[in-house]
Amino acid sequence: MPQTSYFNLAILYVWVTALALPIHVQNLHAPTNYRPLFPSSSIEVFRSGSPDDHLPSLQGYTIFDLRNSDEKKAASVKSLDENEELVVRILSRPLLFPERVWADVRDNEWTILDRVTAEVTSIFSSEAYSRALYDKLEEGGLSCLYRVILRTSLTEVSNVVEEIITSVISDDDSPILINCAKGKDRTGIVCAFLHLLAGIDEDTVVEEYAESEKRLKEGGEERKKQEETGLDWSKFRGSPANAMRDTIDFIRENDIIRKCDFDTIKVEAFKSIVNNS
């Protein structure tokens, strides 16, 4: 058989194989850090970084976007809500509120010495107080950031988690995508709640979170973010296992799952679907 015939057969095989796969597997241009939340289950719940440049390949998805509106503008792309011609349901559910964050760092992370030092140094420098807040959050790294998010946005976190659970147990077969900017921090917190509520063991929750570090190549964008916010974002790079272990410990020690007051009937239905499908 001529060599070109072998080549044509190979191309045909690739196309036939691709067409036989589910639509989300066919997606060769998926958002960064895109992966299934429950790989051993048939339910279609996924997580990722920003989907802004990938909306055409996410037809039929319900997207829970955890970013703030200013982050979408900073992406220099068409706003998600303006893509009316696309059959994509986009739900904006922001989880990070700067004013709440800095108030919480001051009230819950600073020691008395930190507070006194910041107040004294601010007499000589107008930026010293803010710099002290930044330094404390940077010092605490991801574990501190996740604690702060849970303390300042627990209502928003619990609401979006229950909303996702409701979508999973409904008759709507639309795939679900949970995203933030990189798909590791805010998305990581929400996904950890979903895993824990589904009865997945803590070691697996930690491993799934840490998978983001293998998939992301962080570094280049942090200098620009530091110039914009004053915060050294390189301190929050990666998704180390200890950050999620600390977060799970914080959730347990502060009885956060109970405080969220999730609908137990919905949670049990969700747990059954995840583990039996």
Automatic annotation (TrEMBL):
Keywords: Membrane, Transmembrane, Transmembrane helix. Residues 216-236 are annotated as: Disordered. The keyword Membrane applies. SUPFAM superfamilies: (Phosphotyrosine protein) phosphatases II. Residues 216-228 have a biased composition (Basic and acidic residues). Residues 155-228 form the Tyrosine specific protein phosphatases domain. This is Tyrosine specific protein phosphatases domain-containing protein. It comes from Triparma columacea.
